[in-house]
Amino acid sequence: MVRMLNALGHEVVTFDDLSAGFRDAVSSGKFVQGSLHDKLALSALFSTHRFDAVVHFAGMIVVGESVRDPAKYYQNNLVGTLNLLDAMRTYGVNNVVFSSTAAIYGVPQYVPIDEQHPQAPINPYGMTKWMTERILRDYEAAYGLRSVVLRYFNAAGADPDGGLGERHDPETHLIPRALRAANGEGPVLTIFGADYDTPDGTCIRDYIHIVDLCDAHVLALQHLVSGGESRAYNLGNGQGYSVKEVVQVAERVCGKSVPIEYGPRRAGDPPRLVADASRIRRDWGWSPRFASLEQIVEHAWQWEVN
Ligand code: UDP
User: Of the candidates 37, 129, 281, 306, which lies 20 to 30 Å from 45 by C-alpha distance?
Assistant: First the structure.
């Protein structure tokens, strides 16, 4: 995101506590190390820069961990966000792009999921994002803070130019885990549940390339900075792949077999999440550059190899 914004001529300040990120991943713009739990650091940040907008990515994202340790998620994703929004209010910054999630919909009543789908998160991670969306609506009504909420489905892929990719420790996501298992750099891939009510029994997800997510954030920023009203959009390709199908694509892309074993279901996993992202296509002309799962996995593989 920082690279893309810099390339478009924007000045960017990255504020990150490096609890999950890496200093060397921020190769351009200004970097400030700090935490959303540190109100003094936030005041210092906002008093020394004039921001047009904030893109708020600072959330914890691991569904299973949120089930085991909800306090961590409510503290970080909710309290941290409230601190950020308060600093924005204090310093008169009225535009925010917020990373929300398909997890706010819970177990889908129908797929593909559009923005009108009932919202009923089934895990604490999804709850923190759902609550933040509600807070943003109240803050807009009371304080005039405008937001674009982007509900990501499964963010995946890597920078096509190389140099940036998923770097989680521990890595929990399917695509990097499958590729590492194939490459002999990780454990055997455990498939979490093969008894779901889906054609092959494994969970179905809609994988979206990070570049396509970033494109949507750029459109969101342009919309907010030019005075546009608050919006919420789903972001996915509209195509669902089962865990087994992802494994097959990973094998084709890397030319190796992925060693697998079957394990129990992972707590908090809905069986099927597929986006209807026609609203953002219609309103802003967004369309994915890397819609095919092959391309997404290829970029992830290049990153693993590098
Ligand atoms: N998954 C799996 N084994 C793994 C990691 C993930 O079977 O080692 C499954 C997981 O249960 C889900 C899908 O792959 O159905 C995508 O999971 P991931 O953690 O990548 O993203 P999430 O859907 O949690 O955002």
Answer: 129
From the alpha carbon of 192, which atom of ligand 1 is closest? 7
What are the residue boundaries of the structural domains of the chain, listed by start? 2-305
Whether 3 lines ligand 1, by a CB cut-off of 6 Å, is: no
| Catalytic residue ranges | 125
**Identity of residue 180:** R
Q: What's the rounded Cα separation, in Å, for the pair 229 and 218?
A: 15
Output the residue whose Cα is nearest ligand 1's atom 3.
Answer: 191
Q: Is 85 in the pocket of ligand 1 (CB under 6 A)?
A: no
196-205 pLDDT, tens digit per residue, is: 999 999 999 9
Task: Measure the CA–CA gap between 224 and 95, rounded to whole angstroms.
Answer: 6
Tokens of 161: 């130019």
Q: Looking at ligand 1, which residue's alpha carbon is closest to its atom 18?
A: 173
Q: Does domain 2-305 have CATH number 3.40.50.720?
A: yes
**Between the CA of residue 34 and those of 58, 89, 93, 229, what are the distances in Å?**
11, 19, 19, 30
Using DSSP's 3-state secondary structure scheme, residue 5 falls into helix
Per-residue pLDDT tens over the stretch 51-99: 999 999 999 999 889 999 999 999 999 999 999 999 999 999 999 999 9
